[in-house]
Write a structure and sequence with these properties.
5-stranded mixed β-barrel, Immunoglobulin-like, OB fold (Dihydrolipoamide Acetyltransferase, E2P), mainly beta, 5-stranded antiparallel beta sheet, elongated
Length: 210
């Protein structure tokens, strides 16, 4: 049997539960994050590159209304091309989203990290965390590595299984889980989260499994 001989770490790891393609705000609305790319004439409408969409970018058309609220911005007139914003919105139609709230995005990279633990009989678990979890924790890809030497070297160490995603739990935390089909053997393991949207990448400390 494998037993944990170390403490937890700060790294990203896989999650067995599937995640949505992009972060979602409460009550079914969607959270978009990224720079404003263009403005449309004839209304308070703009287009933005949504980096929160799997961290890869997806163009969104956003329409502000009289009901739209602003945070750290004086109003629609404070928006400009290149400004990074967080937009909580809902569908108007297939192509346009109505902005419920537009906020000035936090400075990047946005701090985020991950933890790792080993649980009997054959399960690695941990959490991805951030001050802005809907951007940097929701759906965050995590990789597990088996360390070969005295130092972490992701390019040389053995990548364990495929990348999985952190999923939101009822307590509001974002958890990842890797269940191994076969005993992975004694050794040193760590988790890693790569660059995602404007989120900071991170690697956990190494844990020792016996």
């Amino acid at each position: 049997m494998l037993a944990l001989a170390g403490t937890c770490a700060v790294a990203g790891i896989t999650a067995t539960g599937s995640m949505a393609t992009g972060p979602k705000a409460p009550t079914g609305s969607h959270l978009f994050h990224g720079p404003i790319e263009k403005f449309y004439s004839g209304g308070h409408t703009f287009g933005m590159d949504d980096l929160a969409y799997g961290g890869k970018g997806k163009f969104r058309t956003i329409k502000a209304t009289d009901a739209t609220t602003y945070k750290k911005l004086s109003g629609f007139g404070a928006l400009h091309k290149g400004l990074k914003v967080d937009v909580t919105s809902h569908h108007e139609d297939a192509a346009t989203w109505i902005a419920d709230k537009i906020s000035k995005a936090p400075a990047s990279p946005i701090p985020s990290g991950v933890t790792i633990h080993f649980r009997q009989p054959k399960k690695f678990v941990g959490f991805v965390f951030s001050k802005h979890p809907r951007i940097c924790a929701s759906g965050r890809g995590v990789k597990l590595f088996r360390q070969k030497g005295n130092k972490q070297r992701p390019g040389r160490d053995v990548k364990f299984q495929r990348t999985t995603l952190a999923s939101k739990q009822p307590n509001g935390k974002y958890k990842w889980v890797i269940r191994t089909k076969h005993p992975s053997g004694p050794g040193k393991y760590y988790a890693r989260i790569g660059k995602f949207a404007d989120c900071q990448k991170d690697t956990s400390k190494t844990i020792h499994v016996r």
